[in-house]
Amino acid sequence: MCPVRGEPPRRVENPVVAVVGATGGLGSAISGELARRGARLVLTGRDPATLQARSEELPGSATTVLDLGDPDAGDRLVATAQAAFGRLDVLVNAAGIVAFGPLADTPDIVIEELFLTNVIGPLWLLRRCLPMLQASQGTVVNLSAVVAEQPLPGMAAYCATKAALSAADAALARELRRVGIRVLDVRPPHTNTGLHERPLHGSAPRLSRGLDPHAVARTIADALDEPKRLQLAAADFGTRTRSSAPVTTERVTSNIASISKGSRT
């Protein structure tokens, strides 16, 4: 049945949800929360062993190893979802990378990798998944960040990628509504996922005490049950973006050499 133009996606019992970046701190929490609520999962990650371990914690889940930097990654995700469940209802992009430092000190390869993983890769992936999502009148969830709303110095390239992703989400929400697909843009405050401890480049600044990733995952899962909701801004997570109890992190040396070896979640 063709969706009515502008009609919000219907709620599906035991939906099939693909979580990209399911081995990362937030992706792991999201996949666990959705499994608890009855979702059937397709999990993706870059490291086969870590992905296999996560799958064993969530019985019945399907897995596929993929890299957002590969334009054909979406084809593998679609094939896995089709083979395992015959449909795809929700695509959650929880993968991402970060870098710190002044723009003048940030190598070109780092800027390129940030945009490839945080913006270009998710758009490549979504293009391949659109037919399945249109068939199910499904939902796309893209994990942006609070810096899309409140950009910070020393993080210009990273902030730009998250702002770009949120801008794409705003456009896609209008574009894809015509075919019955909802786009949910999620911009959580700093969350304790450990991502800031493994940047591609630079050192993390003093950060406010982050949110519990499981609490963030619950908020996102709740939003999936609100068919007309198109965004979760930082303020929607029910806490101040910055805490009065700052924490410091150990200095992290540049990881430029690790880019080709895999720094994405």
Describe this protein's structure.
With 265 residues, this protein is α/β, with parallel strands linked by helices. 37% of the residues lie in helices and 12% in strands.
Domain tally? 1
Q: Going across the biggest sheet, name each strand in turn.
A: 3-2-1-4-5-6-7
Counting DSSP E segments of at least 2 residues, the number of strands comes to: 7
Overall mean pLDDT stands at 88
Strand content: 5-15%
What overall form do the CA principal axes indicate?
globular
Report the end-to-end length measured between terminal Cα atoms: 37 Å
User: How does the major sheet shape up?
Assistant: 7 strands, parallel
Number of helices: 6
Quote the CATH topology: Rossmann fold
Order of helices and strands: EHEHEHEHEHEHE
As a whole number of angstroms, the C-alpha radius of gyration is: 18 Å
Structural class by helix and strand composition: alpha/beta
What is the CATH first-level class name? Alpha Beta
Q: What helical percentage do the residues reach?
A: 25-40%
CATH architecture: 3-Layer(aba) Sandwich
Model regions low in confidence, pLDDT < 50 over at least 5 residues: 1-5, 240-263
Q: CATH superfamily, please?
A: NAD(P)-binding Rossmann-like Domain
Defining traits:
265 residues; alpha/beta; Rossmann fold; 7-stranded parallel sheet; 6 helices; 7 strands
Helix and strand topology:
Layout: E1 16-20, H1 25-36, E2 40-45, H2 48-57, E3 62-65, H3 73-85, E4 90-93, H4 108-136, E5 139-143, H5 156-177, E6 182-186, H6 213-224, E7 231-232
Parallel strand pairs: 1-2, 1-4, 2-3, 4-5, 5-6, 6-7
